């Protein structure tokens, strides 16, 4: 393994470590429930997301040591393959990013449990990225198939995740603060622990904010569908009808700030993309690199972002800095797939191949891009990486990046070079991680 490959992979490992639920969940539970103030009454644990199962495992471990007299129960939904062992909280695996019946049944179970809370009970919600599709409990009149079709249409349109979630909030009985609304109507206290995978880290945006007041409206949801030219030919009639009834005031809006007066609802963001980027930056500095944070809010088409960052790398190399440089960034790009193209891979490998192609004149560049949940798009890899040696191997094999970019088959390109990042499910999720090493 070359020095550059080692540094790239260790930087990614450092980013993951700081978002490990086993470490951060107990730390925050100790702050929320100091010694002598453990939960009273029933303690119901619910949640959803790619990291939520491991969050539940960490919570149970903390409770065993610090809340020996508290009886836990609950249900947490996670993506297939992201199960973590628990004793008291049931873990249900379901479909993501396209919802399925298992997710709907699990969300229904969560809804029923929260509906049985009483005055003085505590609801602990463990929320992470992926929760929007996992907590698919449609409003009355909307079927799971209608939700699935709507999600698929939004995915293919290239709509940013923030816009997708505005639509999903207004179709859900749980998202958009509706879970908290249900609990506080029963007199329960709500404490939500959130691992953020969204730019800005707003609780309303993380898994579509099941316990957070929502800033968006039914009209916003309709405007988003119109923006992406998603009409009656792509969106089921039941969905359009529900949104139109919401605009007309015939259906209640999502939870708003005004609904939280004189109630106990708190959302705690316990891990963010920026904290992970900082951990990676701290590591590369120990390896002699000057770290430059490009931010955790970089979005846009993955191929375009790759081209932009190649240009930025070129500028830094031409400046002839004294030390090697590491450019570190996060945020979630999008990939718009044309009709008739299947594609293989995800936004991280697509960004990386675009960067690879646009930096052909830069012999001393290395890079890695990976999704912190361990799964990048359609395949089982987290992302991909390259070094000067990988570029040489690509040239030797006669691989032409533009051909793979045209077909959105970035997985196929890096698979042939044995340059995939393969972690398996990491059981956390703080958005995408990108690092570019610029050596002299």
How do the helices and strands line up, and which of them pair or pack?
Elements: H1 3-17, H2 21-32, E1 43-48, H3 52-66, E2 72-79, E3 89-94, H4 101-115, E4 122-128, H5 131-134, H6 144-157, H7 161-169, H8 178-185, E5 189-195, H9 218-227, H10 237-247, E6 265-271, H11 273-286, E7 290-295, E8 300-301, H12 302-318, E9 325-330, E10 333-334, H13 347-358, E11 365-371, E12 383-386, H14 388-397, H15 401-406, H16 410-416, E13 420-421, E14 432-438
Parallel strand pairs: 1-2, 1-4, 2-3, 4-5, 5-6, 7-9, 8-10
Antiparallel strand pairs: 9-14, 11-12, 11-14, 12-13
Helix pairs in contact: 1-11, 2-3, 7-9, 9-10, 12-13, 13-16
Question: How many DSSP E strands?
Answer: 14
Structural class: alpha/beta
Mean pLDDT: 95
Fraction of helical residues: 40-55%
Main sheet specs: 6 strands, parallel
Which strand order does the major sheet show?
3-2-1-4-5-6
Determine the number of helices (DSSP H or I, runs of at least 4 residues). 16
Overall shape: it is: globular
CATH homologous superfamily heading of the largest domain: Glycerate kinase, MOFRL-like N-terminal domain
CATH class of the largest domain: Alpha Beta
Low-confidence stretches: none
Radius of gyration from the alpha-carbon trace, in angstroms: 22 Å
N-to-C CA distance: 20 Å
The third-level CATH topology of the largest domain is Rossmann fold
CATH architecture grouping of the largest domain: 3-Layer(aba) Sandwich
Element order, helices and strands? HHEHEEHEHHHHEHHEHEEHEEHEEHHHEE
Question: How would you classify the quaternary structure?
Answer: single chain
Whole-number total of structural domains: 2
